[in-house]
Amino acid sequence: VRVPATHLVGSEADGMSFVYEWFRFERLMVAARCLGAAERLVDEATAFAKERVVGGQPLIERQLVQAMLADSLTELFNHRHSMELVDQEFQRVGRYPAHEGLSLLMIDIDDFKRINDSRGHLAGDAVLREICARIKTSIRSDEVFARVGGEEFIVLMPETSLKEAASFAERIRRIVADAPVEVDGGKIPVTISVGLSHTDGEA
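Now predict its structure.
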């Protein structure tokens, strides 16, 4: 605690002022050292993350890209990126007509609002994650499975005939409907509706 110099006289006042100033200087030096240490830690952590390369891409950069492309709840491609992929694929098949054509499935979870209203949004989130996990098991590596709305999804299927796409749609419909989703000890029956579009790339 600083003792006001006006309450002291002569050399005693000068001495106490000196002690105070020295104490204040020491505190500033400690703060500066702490701040410098914190800045160094941030720099070291950033450098460490940049050195961690995954698939030829720095970890931080990869995580940022993933956040921009993916839906955080389901870890599927998000609406924006999926529409870019759809556009690219339709342009490609327009330039180079595919042998089997290009199929696009639109998936909607039936009465999803009822699930949210009656069981709560956490239960709704659990249903979304589970349904996506089930459908993922049937997705090929060259296909795009994405979330484009609250309970709406698409599957982009290159080199897939109309017949094959219809068969796939029925298969995932059964995968979802055959077993209810278990949430907090309860079971929620879920069904989906699937729409289908197909093009062979020819006008």
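The first strand starts at residue 53 and ends at 54.
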